[in-house]
Amino acid sequence: MEEYVLYNGKLSRQFNILQGVRQGGVLSPWLFLLFIDDMISELEKLSTGIVIQNLFVGSPMFADDLTLMSRLKRGLDNMLVQVHNYSLKWRLTFNEKKTVVLTFGEKRDNISAVTNRRWLIGGKEIMEKSIWHNLEKDWHTDVSSLIPILEAAKKGQAIGIGLANLGCRFNGMSPLVATKLWARIALPKMLYGAELWTLNREKLSKLEKVQNIFLRVCLGLLSGTLGSAARGLLGLWTVGAEIDKRKLLFLRRLICASEDCVHRRVFMIRLNRWRWNPNKITGFVPDLVRILQKYCLWEYMDNFLQSGNFPSKSEWKKTVIENINHTEIEFWKFKTQRYKQLGLYSQVVKEPMRNMWLQFALENSEMAIQVAIIVKILCGSFYVNGVRFAGGKTQFHCMSCGNYYINPVKHAMLHCCETQLARTKLWERITYFFPVEFVVNINSLDEGNLMQTIFGNMQFVQGHDNNQVQNFYIIVAESISQIITITSYIDIYLDSETSH
Ligand SMILES: [Zn+2]
């Protein structure tokens, strides 16, 4: 058989093919397996490779990629010799430059040995590395390394910037649509392989920050605005919850894999070790146990250990999502109710879900800018009279009307002389357009409830016609943005922290 190479329209000289299989040929994989099968059984006979419950797993292969696994240096040395001999006999070549040694789980005080030991294949030296890229994945010998997390964060950031360039930013497309793109595109890429991450607070906060910055860019919020506030308006989970979900779904895949699968065997061995010695085991299993307990899902695992039964795929997914959601709502309430800056927010936004204001803006595009202003006020991410509402007891002096106030938003909306005309117009429109019962109802609210109502808490306008309520909010949105614009300067431009 002869072959030549076609490159840039030119043919190379012909050369003979003495060995190999045809690319894309139907028989090729079988022929290759036949060819390589003996090597694997020779390696198995050496009995220095790793065995899991009578199953030899010392030499997993993927196409022409070969991995050798042993618990001991001597064991791997023997396997390297064996592989080299096989390659001489059957005219294979191993590229020692593309061959590396990785050592996992080595004791700390043994690390100095790394610099002293050598690895050879057929007399040629191969390097020992701490990171290696293979099969589309970076393999880190230090499993607690921060590097994979930083890389994931970088990936998320890059996609975030890409989405911002597409229009996912303040005064761009609707934040609700931007959030959907984030959840469908950025999260899956950023969290690829998250099932096996071991996280701590530091790592997690790096990932949360990426999402928080993106959400702040979408909503046009100032840096330092609480991420929970933004998430609550968009109906999004924390990145931590997203990762936990992936881990819990992965758990079912492990449990329900066929019994002779290697990954299931490894999991069951670790699970049993953990059962006998829960305090001595670290890593994957205790991490899962902690997550199951966190979301009140332990009973399912307990039941599996007792009876071997586990919920069906759809049932498990539904339960996982429900329980995580429940815990996320509690966490969101805890976070948002603690911050004085979010006083108005927590009176108005009762559940973390797609916010009604944003929904309005999605349906009536002419309201987008007004809604954006309301969202900023709610999140305490706005300057009124040069003051960012911090919810404290400090008195401020109004530059517009000369009076003193504590709450800048309330002052502008209800008391400032500067905004009196805009306020009068609002009430004029309300009395003109709405039936008398509705006007009476609004008029009977005390200051606090009135503020809550105009900023979107529908509790006090319940029972009125839906169209009326919606029209009320359209009028109010116009008025709020008018009043606030009079008394404030709006930072339409993204500040430096949120623009990168
Ligand atoms: Zn004033």
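^ zinc ion complex. The first strand starts at residue 2 and ends at 3. The chain has 21 helices and 17 strands.
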